[in-house]
Amino acid sequence: MSEKLNHEEFIKKAIVSLRKEGYKGIHTVYSGFNEAFKKYFDNEDPIKATNQLAKENKIVIRPVKGGVMLYLPEEAPAQATQASDALSKMGLS
What is the pLDDT of residues 3-23, one digit of tens each? Predict the structure, then answer.
């Protein structure tokens, strides 16, 4: 490895490389991402780095059982139904 990747490069590479066939994102725990991030970046916190990139709209984070899923912005699933949509479907709006 010649030059070390920055957080954004590492995370985007991980999303593309670690996802299972048919999936667009990776589970941070089950894919091994968290441990790989800590090892590559000398025990830095992957949560802090992923949250920062999500704030900058460079990745998308979706909560799931046992952790979170990471996606590239152009491949993320649609956001969960908004409250007003849910109320409308329930006939309460």
Answer: 999 999 999 999 999 999 999
